[in-house]
Amino acid sequence: MDNVSSASSYMGSSVSPKLDPNHLKAIIAAKDACLFNFSKTLRMADEKAKLAEAALNRRIQELENELQRKNVGSSVKILHSVPDKLTSELVRLQAELSADREDLEALRNVHDENLKVSAMKEANYQKLVEKLEGDLQHALQQQRAAEQGMRVKAQDFDDRNTLLENEVFQLRSKMVQEAEAAKLHLTQLQQENALLRETAEQGMDRRDHEAESQLASLRSELAATEARRARAEEARQQAEMRS
Questions:
Q1: Where is the composition biased (Basic and acidic residues) (predicted)?
Q2: Cβ distance 52 to 100 under 8 Å?
Q3: Where are the domains of the chain?
Protein backbone atom coordinates (compact mmCIF):
# COMPACT_ATOMS: atom_id res chain seq x y z
CA MET A 1 0.00 0.00 0.00
CA ASP A 2 2.99 2.25 0.47
CA ASN A 3 3.59 1.84 -3.23
CA VAL A 4 0.00 2.95 -3.85
CA SER A 5 0.39 6.12 -1.78
CA SER A 6 3.77 6.93 -3.31
CA ALA A 7 2.39 6.32 -6.79
CA SER A 8 -0.68 8.47 -6.05
CA SER A 9 1.50 11.29 -4.76
CA TYR A 10 3.64 10.89 -7.84
CA MET A 11 0.61 11.73 -10.00
CA GLY A 12 0.74 15.37 -8.94
CA SER A 13 4.47 15.74 -9.39
CA SER A 14 6.41 16.49 -12.54
CA VAL A 15 8.19 13.61 -14.25
CA SER A 16 11.78 14.00 -15.25
CA PRO A 17 12.38 13.72 -19.01
CA LYS A 18 15.05 11.12 -18.23
CA LEU A 19 12.58 8.54 -16.85
CA ASP A 20 14.07 5.18 -16.02
CA PRO A 21 12.08 2.37 -17.71
CA ASN A 22 12.95 0.06 -14.77
CA HIS A 23 11.22 2.51 -12.40
CA LEU A 24 8.10 2.37 -14.57
CA LYS A 25 8.16 -1.45 -14.56
CA ALA A 26 8.55 -1.50 -10.75
CA ILE A 27 5.52 0.78 -10.30
CA ILE A 28 3.38 -1.39 -12.60
CA ALA A 29 4.51 -4.57 -10.80
CA ALA A 30 3.66 -3.04 -7.40
CA LYS A 31 0.24 -2.06 -8.69
CA ASP A 32 -0.44 -5.56 -9.98
CA ALA A 33 0.70 -7.11 -6.67
CA CYS A 34 -1.58 -4.81 -4.62
CA LEU A 35 -4.58 -5.54 -6.82
CA PHE A 36 -3.89 -9.28 -6.68
CA ASN A 37 -3.64 -9.33 -2.86
CA PHE A 38 -6.74 -7.17 -2.47
CA SER A 39 -8.80 -9.35 -4.82
CA LYS A 40 -7.56 -12.48 -3.03
CA THR A 41 -8.67 -11.08 0.37
CA LEU A 42 -12.11 -10.19 -0.98
CA ARG A 43 -12.54 -13.64 -2.51
CA MET A 44 -11.58 -15.31 0.78
CA ALA A 45 -14.05 -13.16 2.76
CA ASP A 46 -16.83 -13.84 0.24
CA GLU A 47 -16.13 -17.59 0.29
CA LYS A 48 -16.11 -17.61 4.10
CA ALA A 49 -19.47 -15.81 4.21
CA LYS A 50 -20.93 -18.21 1.66
CA LEU A 51 -19.68 -21.20 3.65
CA ALA A 52 -21.21 -19.81 6.87
CA GLU A 53 -24.53 -19.18 5.14
CA ALA A 54 -24.49 -22.67 3.61
CA ALA A 55 -23.76 -24.21 7.04
CA LEU A 56 -26.66 -22.30 8.63
CA ASN A 57 -28.97 -23.30 5.81
CA ARG A 58 -27.96 -26.94 6.23
CA ARG A 59 -28.56 -26.74 10.00
CA ILE A 60 -32.00 -25.17 9.49
CA GLN A 61 -32.84 -27.83 6.91
CA GLU A 62 -31.76 -30.53 9.35
CA LEU A 63 -34.01 -29.06 12.06
CA GLU A 64 -36.92 -28.78 9.67
CA ASN A 65 -36.42 -32.37 8.53
CA GLU A 66 -36.24 -33.52 12.15
CA LEU A 67 -39.50 -31.72 12.92
CA GLN A 68 -41.17 -33.17 9.86
CA ARG A 69 -40.16 -36.69 10.95
CA LYS A 70 -42.11 -36.10 14.15
CA ASN A 71 -45.27 -35.62 12.02
CA VAL A 72 -46.06 -32.12 13.21
CA GLY A 73 -48.70 -30.52 10.94
CA SER A 74 -48.29 -26.75 11.04
CA SER A 75 -45.72 -24.28 12.14
CA VAL A 76 -47.93 -23.28 15.10
CA LYS A 77 -48.15 -26.87 16.21
CA ILE A 78 -44.38 -27.21 15.71
CA LEU A 79 -43.66 -24.31 17.99
CA HIS A 80 -46.04 -25.66 20.66
CA SER A 81 -45.04 -29.30 20.33
CA VAL A 82 -41.27 -29.22 20.02
CA PRO A 83 -39.24 -29.37 23.16
CA ASP A 84 -38.00 -26.15 24.66
CA LYS A 85 -34.41 -27.06 23.84
CA LEU A 86 -35.23 -27.42 20.15
CA THR A 87 -37.20 -24.19 20.12
CA SER A 88 -34.41 -22.26 21.78
CA GLU A 89 -31.90 -23.84 19.37
CA LEU A 90 -34.03 -22.80 16.40
CA VAL A 91 -34.38 -19.27 17.73
CA ARG A 92 -30.65 -19.10 18.36
CA LEU A 93 -29.84 -20.40 14.88
CA GLN A 94 -32.29 -17.95 13.33
CA ALA A 95 -30.65 -15.13 15.29
CA GLU A 96 -27.21 -16.31 14.18
CA LEU A 97 -28.45 -16.58 10.61
CA SER A 98 -29.85 -13.05 10.82
CA ALA A 99 -26.59 -11.79 12.29
CA ASP A 100 -24.55 -13.66 9.70
CA ARG A 101 -26.76 -12.27 6.98
CA GLU A 102 -26.19 -8.79 8.35
CA ASP A 103 -22.46 -9.50 8.50
CA LEU A 104 -22.58 -10.87 4.98
CA GLU A 105 -24.48 -7.79 3.81
CA ALA A 106 -21.91 -5.61 5.56
CA LEU A 107 -19.13 -7.60 3.92
CA ARG A 108 -20.82 -7.21 0.58
CA ASN A 109 -21.15 -3.48 1.16
CA VAL A 110 -17.49 -3.35 2.13
CA HIS A 111 -16.72 -5.48 -0.90
CA ASP A 112 -18.65 -3.10 -3.15
CA GLU A 113 -16.95 -0.11 -1.57
CA ASN A 114 -13.58 -1.79 -1.92
CA LEU A 115 -14.38 -2.53 -5.56
CA LYS A 116 -15.16 1.16 -6.07
CA VAL A 117 -11.92 2.14 -4.32
CA SER A 118 -10.06 -0.48 -6.32
CA ALA A 119 -11.59 0.85 -9.54
CA MET A 120 -10.57 4.39 -8.59
CA LYS A 121 -7.06 3.22 -7.75
CA GLU A 122 -6.97 1.24 -10.99
CA ALA A 123 -7.98 4.38 -12.89
CA ASN A 124 -5.33 6.39 -11.03
CA TYR A 125 -2.75 3.74 -11.78
CA GLN A 126 -3.82 3.72 -15.43
CA LYS A 127 -3.48 7.51 -15.58
CA LEU A 128 -0.10 7.23 -13.89
CA VAL A 129 1.07 4.56 -16.31
CA GLU A 130 -0.19 6.57 -19.28
CA LYS A 131 1.53 9.69 -17.93
CA LEU A 132 4.76 7.79 -17.34
CA GLU A 133 4.58 6.19 -20.77
CA GLY A 134 3.88 9.60 -22.33
CA ASP A 135 6.80 11.16 -20.47
CA LEU A 136 9.00 8.24 -21.47
CA GLN A 137 8.01 8.59 -25.12
CA HIS A 138 8.57 12.36 -24.91
CA ALA A 139 12.01 11.78 -23.38
CA LEU A 140 12.84 9.23 -26.07
CA GLN A 141 11.69 11.65 -28.78
CA GLN A 142 13.83 14.40 -27.27
CA GLN A 143 16.77 12.02 -27.12
CA ARG A 144 16.25 10.95 -30.74
CA ALA A 145 15.89 14.60 -31.80
CA ALA A 146 19.09 15.49 -29.93
CA GLU A 147 20.92 12.56 -31.51
CA GLN A 148 19.62 13.56 -34.94
CA GLY A 149 20.71 17.15 -34.30
CA MET A 150 24.15 15.95 -33.25
CA ARG A 151 24.37 13.79 -36.38
CA VAL A 152 23.33 16.75 -38.56
CA LYS A 153 25.87 19.00 -36.84
CA ALA A 154 28.56 16.33 -37.18
CA GLN A 155 27.72 15.89 -40.87
CA ASP A 156 27.73 19.66 -41.37
CA PHE A 157 31.08 19.86 -39.61
CA ASP A 158 32.44 17.04 -41.77
CA ASP A 159 31.14 18.76 -44.91
CA ARG A 160 32.69 22.07 -43.92
CA ASN A 161 35.92 20.36 -42.96
CA THR A 162 35.99 18.57 -46.31
CA LEU A 163 35.26 21.84 -48.10
CA LEU A 164 38.05 23.61 -46.21
CA GLU A 165 40.44 20.75 -46.94
CA ASN A 166 39.56 20.98 -50.64
CA GLU A 167 40.05 24.75 -50.60
CA VAL A 168 43.40 24.37 -48.82
CA PHE A 169 44.45 21.67 -51.30
CA GLN A 170 43.42 23.83 -54.25
CA LEU A 171 45.16 26.88 -52.77
CA ARG A 172 48.29 24.84 -52.08
CA SER A 173 48.22 23.44 -55.62
CA LYS A 174 47.73 26.94 -57.01
CA MET A 175 50.64 28.26 -54.91
CA VAL A 176 52.84 25.38 -56.08
CA GLN A 177 51.88 26.08 -59.70
CA GLU A 178 52.54 29.81 -59.24
CA ALA A 179 55.89 29.02 -57.61
CA GLU A 180 56.82 26.71 -60.49
CA ALA A 181 55.70 29.37 -62.99
CA ALA A 182 57.72 32.00 -61.10
CA LYS A 183 60.79 29.74 -61.14
CA LEU A 184 60.35 29.12 -64.87
CA HIS A 185 59.88 32.84 -65.52
CA LEU A 186 62.97 33.62 -63.44
CA THR A 187 64.96 31.05 -65.39
CA GLN A 188 63.75 32.58 -68.65
CA LEU A 189 64.68 36.07 -67.41
CA GLN A 190 68.10 34.84 -66.36
CA GLN A 191 68.59 33.23 -69.76
CA GLU A 192 67.42 36.41 -71.51
CA ASN A 193 69.73 38.53 -69.33
CA ALA A 194 72.64 36.24 -70.10
CA LEU A 195 71.83 36.44 -73.82
CA LEU A 196 71.51 40.22 -73.66
CA ARG A 197 74.75 40.48 -71.73
CA GLU A 198 76.51 38.26 -74.23
CA THR A 199 75.02 40.21 -77.13
CA ALA A 200 76.00 43.51 -75.51
CA GLU A 201 79.54 42.31 -74.95
CA GLN A 202 79.78 41.13 -78.53
CA GLY A 203 78.40 44.49 -79.75
CA MET A 204 80.88 46.45 -77.66
CA ASP A 205 83.75 44.36 -78.96
CA ARG A 206 82.59 44.93 -82.51
CA ARG A 207 82.18 48.67 -81.96
CA ASP A 208 85.65 48.85 -80.33
CA HIS A 209 87.14 47.03 -83.27
CA GLU A 210 85.38 49.33 -85.74
CA ALA A 211 86.52 52.41 -83.77
CA GLU A 212 90.11 51.18 -83.74
CA SER A 213 89.90 50.52 -87.46
CA GLN A 214 88.54 54.00 -88.09
CA LEU A 215 91.19 55.49 -85.79
CA ALA A 216 93.94 53.65 -87.66
CA SER A 217 92.49 54.86 -90.96
CA LEU A 218 92.35 58.43 -89.66
CA ARG A 219 95.93 58.16 -88.48
CA SER A 220 96.98 56.90 -91.89
CA GLU A 221 95.16 59.76 -93.60
CA LEU A 222 96.70 62.23 -91.12
CA ALA A 223 100.17 60.84 -91.80
CA ALA A 224 99.56 61.07 -95.54
CA THR A 225 98.30 64.64 -95.13
CA GLU A 226 101.36 65.54 -93.06
CA ALA A 227 103.59 63.99 -95.68
CA ARG A 228 101.90 65.97 -98.48
CA ARG A 229 102.09 69.13 -96.43
CA ALA A 230 105.81 68.51 -95.75
CA ARG A 231 106.47 67.90 -99.45
CA ALA A 232 104.52 71.04 -100.35
CA GLU A 233 106.48 73.06 -97.81
CA GLU A 234 109.74 71.65 -99.12
CA ALA A 235 108.68 72.46 -102.68
CA ARG A 236 107.76 75.98 -101.66
CA GLN A 237 111.11 76.51 -99.97
CA GLN A 238 112.94 75.19 -103.02
CA ALA A 239 110.89 77.49 -105.18
CA GLU A 240 111.81 80.44 -103.03
CA MET A 241 115.45 79.51 -103.16
CA ARG A 242 115.37 79.40 -106.94
CA SER A 243 113.81 82.76 -107.17
A1: 199-212, 226-243
A2: yes
A3: 2-168
